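Contributing new records

If you add data, match the layout below exactly. Sequence lines come first and carry their own label; structure lines follow with theirs. Keep one chain per record. Anything else will be rejected by the validation script.
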Amino acid sequence: MVRDYWHLNAAPFDGTLEPATFYMAAPQEEALARLEWLVDERQRFALVVGAEGCGKSHLAAMAVRRLGGLGAEATLLSLGGLSAGDWIEMLLARLPLDAASRAEPLRPWQKLENRLRENTLMERTTALVFDDLDRAPADAIDGIARLLGAAEPRFARVAVVATATPRGAAALPVGLAERAAVRVELDPWDARDVAGFLASALVRVGGRHDIFTPEATATLARFTGGVPRTVARLAHLALAAAAGDHLDRVDAATIERAWRELAPDAAPRSDVPADDLHEPAVNPRVKVVRRLFG
């Protein structure tokens, strides 16, 4: 009903991690710029830190595509929920080893070292992107620390990118966290980012860019605090509510009603000044990062 009412060819706020649904807001652009610098400058480790719902997993998936575009052999492994002993086998399964290499009677770590050596000899970076490092089993933490600390030539072109929550990052072994050449704080979106995301998502599926009124967009940004996952969920509910009420556009009152359904016990976020919501300042960090790391 919602798609028909708004004349959409797909759900605009489905929360998938597909590349097409990725929105390049200022925090995401900054993060990817820093990860490009990591590979360009042959640094070893970047740690991306963000609260739950701020888009770390989606960024990790896009980092694989971006770093692969720079010529790296890039692969992604989510470490959350893995059992001890599983991580390296799963990592090898994601690397493009030939049949003979997979069949060799070697320990998994030796197979990994052989692949790293092959890429180094071809002057190709191996970019290993690990999502949820703070939820990894102990043996994975130890193995990644070994990758980062090894001085042998075969590890010279290894770049590791890992994501974690602020609390999880603080609990990582001190020696591991200190090895990060780049630490990226993945901030929530400001009101301009939220407005851009809503318009982009709607246009992507054939809708009008202005279905959400400016007042509705500002209210949505304030209630959600700019957390991307919550922004998408509230936008989805509001779009359905407005369709049910046969409205021409989603207004602020509909956002408030949808918010009560999404978080009935939560108060709207009030830590973003109202002036910033309606006239957000241009985020200067991306230009700064491009100068420092580009």
